[in-house]
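Researcher: We are triaging several targets before committing to wet-lab work. For this one, the compound of interest is zinc ion. I'm pasting the protein sequence and the ligand SMILES. What I need is the predicted three-dimensional arrangement of the protein with the ligand bound, expressed as structure tokens, so it can go straight into our comparison scripts without reformatting.
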Amino acid sequence: MGDLELAFDSLLIVSLFATTTSFCGFKRSNTTYTIDEYTVGGVADKVFIYCNTYTLDFVLDEITKKTVSSLFKEYYKSFAPNVGSIERREFGFGDFEKKVSFRHCSFADSAALRRYLYDNAPTFVNYSISLYKDPAARPMENKGWLGAELVFDLDAGDLHLECQKRHGHAWVCTNCMDMVKAETMKLIEDFLIPDFGFSGNELSVNFSGNRGYHVHADKKALYQLTQKERRAITEYIAGINVHIETFFPTIGQKGKPLIGPKPADYGWGGRLARAMVKTLNGGTEPLQSLGIDQRTAKKLVANKADFIFGITTGNWDKIPIPKKAEFWEGVMKRMAISQGDSIDKNVTNDIYHLIRMPDTLHGDSGLVGKSVSISELASFDPLVKAIAFRKGSLSVVARTTEALVINNETYGPYNGEVVELPVYAALYLLLKRTATLSK
Ligand SMILES: [Zn+2]
């Protein structure tokens, strides 16, 4: 067997010599991670690398591909695309190796798109957030850009969660799902509605199909925003270039009382004041999660009426915290929204980006990128509601270091045993490259 080059999590390249028994470790950005337990072996003409942190297998066999494709085809048989301005959008499709393997496609109407999806059963269906005069023209500058939606892509992978150190970025656990949903609700309720003035019916949300959510803000007045203006919005919600002195005018000035924002104020100042009042009302634990030591937290809670009165009148001196500027900047960071911070990952800034079309299937999970109403988001469980294939079962050889919780049932962990699973659970493990079809 020759050398394999494996792409993992888009940033990570692993070079593996499959015939050797030693492993070179792998690099992500500038940090080297070491896989400390692994086996390398051939199973059904494929190479697996099993380790306690990651299971890496990037080569789906032909039988699995055919099985997945026929399931996807079945899904698209009765699919009704619900895409605004369909004839003005560029489409791109992915396969088992790449999320976008080709682009510059366009469709005259929903019927043409549905027919294409049924005929081809693509692994990923992506569409442009931009509208064009001629979406199929190439290169990009020949398309005739007409404007773009404002889209936010929230991904559990950008949240740097503790659980990800255990299970890696390819896997998604219930904590990942819960945390990214909380981040999405924070974006909508704390930023898009109060600060940007969106109404609920101008915002639409869909599960990404794998480990996050997409929020689309569809307001004609925003269509012409330039990339620079879009970047200013992402920086604002990320708390970048927000200067604390604008709402704490006397911060750092010795001998002067600390005048600060009030809860009714606009923007970051008001948000900070409201959050502080809410946190004071929540007891010592939320205060400690902001970095306040236990003794001070207890003191604040015991005298919270006085402190809350201070904040509502703009007097922040009552809160006895040393290094106030650093402290409040730290709190702001905790309140900010985490999106992909690298330029090529940040969907909001990139008007040429293709994003998963809502309600299509995700080729890394077999789940639907399901549209969710804002009112249902709090109770939305993607690993129940986004299941596409509820009928039948498949027999697989599964190897997982984590249990899969799907449709309110727990499956695994598995250590190479043959298991008969509901199609949705088997499909999920197959597409996560943690199972193979049983012979
Ligand atoms: Zn997790």
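Researcher: Any quick observations?
Model: Residues 102 and 356 are 14 Å apart (CA to CA).
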